[in-house]
Specification:
The protein has about 325 residues and is of the alpha+beta class. It has eleven helices and six strands. It folds into two domains: about 200 residues, Multidrug efflux transporter AcrB transmembrane domain (Multidrug efflux transporter AcrB transmembrane fold, Up-down Bundle); about 80 residues, Alpha-Beta Plaits (2-Layer Sandwich).
Length: about 325
Amino acid sequence: MRLLKLVPDVTNLPFLKYRNLGFALAIALTLSAIALVALRGLNFGVDFAGGLMIEARFEEPVAVDRLRTEVNALGAGQGNLQTFGDPRTVAIRLPLPPGDDEAVQRTVTDVQKKLRAAYPGVEFRRVETVSGKVSGELVRQAALAVLFAMIGISLYIWFRFEWQFGVGALLALVHDVAVTLGLFSLFQWEFNLPIIAAVLTIVGYSLNDTIVVYDRIRENLRKYRKMDMIPLLDLSLNETLSRTIVTSLTMIIALATLVLFGGEVLFGFAIAMLIGVFVGTFSSIYIGAPILLWLGVGPHSFVPAEATGTKAERVIP
């Protein structure tokens, strides 16, 4: 029985032919994502925004504007309402009432009682509370976690290969994280602590894919010392293409299943990971590899000269 091959052994796609277009697209996506986050902001969950969140599921779809007016009339503060997964489920965010835990519980009980009276059959799935001080600390810690992860990974690539590779890896990671955050800002998906876990996982996935490509590039730099850099980079990308496609495809299938059938709790994490797989694969090819060419990487720049005849040479015109 012949094994199924998603990528034929003789694949020779000219990735670097479109390097300028790919890199320009990456820059445009990154800048657009940063602008979206700066202007529109992220839809922070209770983890980061602080306050009180009540998830309510109604028997029939409700008009969010009407429900917002009714919630604001309860005297618990200005509510921020958003459908959560489907038109029947609404996340109601309210400011924390002054006082202790008993005051919070009284507010929750009062809101639930009045909503039950207005909407018989409503179901309250969860209630979360986070103080403003705790939410602020979580925002800072999450931002530092992502920043230190990206810097640490770039330093590792620098020492593992050369500084040019570290620059390429850092730019690829910035692109992956920025595009993911930009899409969360565009669609106003809830941004909470599980999304930070997804972003850190995206950083690790992108690094893994980039290192596989970089390792093959370094190996080919030593093996084919007279080959021009563009054919060598194309050769390296094609040699790792099968592994990249198989890895990405298996993750896409698993994550798409979670997005469709995992429910509201897993949706944010799964959609962030799904976006990260796509942008991470793209950045490994059209940021990680071309940047080496523009930074002047070649066999002459950092690979020690080998004795003549110890390695077979291959020249591709």
